[in-house]
Amino acid sequence: MSTNSPAPARPPRIVLVRPLYGGNVGSSARAMCNMGLSDLRVVDRQYRDDFEAHKMAMGGQELLKAATFCDSLQDAVADCATVIACTARPRRWKAWKCLDPREAAVLLAEQGQAGNDSAIVFGSEDKGLDNKDLEWATHLCHIPTDRNVSSLNLSQAVLLLGWEWARGQNQLHRRPARTRNRASPAMEQVNGAADQVGSLLDRIDFFAGRNRDQALATIRQTLLRSELTDTELHFLRGVVRKLHWHVDHGERVE
Predict the structure, then answer these.
(1) Is 111 helix (H, G, I), strand (E, B) or coil?
(2) Mind listing the pLDDT tens digit for each residue in 39-83?
(3) Residue 240 lies in a domain
(4) Residue 180 placed within a domain
(5) What are phi and psi of 9, to 5 degrees?
(6) CA atoms 52, 159, 38, 100: torsion sign
(7) Domain for residue 254, yes or no?
(8) Is there a single domain that holds both residue 137 and residue 232?
(9) For residue 103, pLDDT beyond 80
(10) Domain of residue 117, CATH code
(11) N- to C-terminal Cα distance for the chain?
(12) How many domains does the structure of the chain reveal?
């Protein structure tokens, strides 16, 4: 008997940025195994106690051994189309409202079913993610908690988002297929497009009197918010290349 149930979605990766304690990383690996997640990336780790990490990974030691250690968040999410950054504060960033865990999980399940890579990013235990980190996010997620003790233990947050992701897969068939079969560009492609626009703007002295890094971050975030397809981004980059050619050859663009 055939069914219309969607195929299992590609799981998101978990990215831990500047974790302070090996035990929390190990506990996060265990939580990932509980929820069927298997891709762990650790960015600029601050701990050196691998023994504590493996001790707390009970049942997730193999996942922890296979973890990828990255120098930067950009490297950790370069091939992802969707990057959800978890924040302890329900703040707005570049005019985006925060998603709650359930909304974030359904989005991740939709992206995974469409074959797009995705990531959930968690900051350090004491300071969380900074604004530079958020520049590499496509969405934010806030876990509502009591205002008197708003922050969760790192592994608890990983477990909660992992559980919601697993639950979100079961809701796909009850929601409009917004992203199914939609090929979304990876973060490195969007970043490449932003750099390409930046190079063009350099040629016409657009950044004179402006903060170039801040302007490029705005361009990148604008491209991310647009949720362009691969085809649309490729077309846009072709337009920019043509404009660059005219500028370099001193020809007037009609």
Answers:
(1) helix
(2) 999 999 999 889 999 999 999 999 999 999 999 999 999 999 999
(3) yes
(4) no
(5) -80, 150
(6) negative
(7) no
(8) no
(9) yes
(10) 3.40.1280.10
(11) 61
(12) 2
What SS3 string covers 24-83?
HHHHHHHHHHHCCCCCEEEECCCCCCHHHHHHHCCCCHHHHHCCEEECCHHHHHCCCCEE
Distance CA 137, CA 68 (A): 19
Strand order in the sheet with 40-43: 68-70, 40-43, 13-17, 118-122, 82-87, 139-142
Cβ(59)–Cβ(33) below 8 Å? yes
C-alpha separations of 242 from 36, 51, 75, 251 in Å = 46, 55, 29, 11
Residues 219, 144: Cα–Cα separation, whole Å: 30
Verify that 220 and 158 share a domain, yes or no.
Answer: no
- Nearest residue to 68 (alpha-carbon basis) of 84, 79, 56, 55: 79
Task: State the amino acid at position 57 in one-letter form.
Answer: A
**pTM of the complete model:** 0.76
Residues of the domain holding 112: 13-174
Structure tokens at 108: 């991740």
**Shared domain check, 195 and 148:** no
Which 8-state DSSP code applies to residue 140? E
Name every residue whose Cβ is closer than 8 Å to that of residue 48 and which is 6 or more positions away in sequence. Answer: 22
CB atoms within 10 A of CB 51: 11
In 10 A of CB 72, how many CB atoms?
A: 14
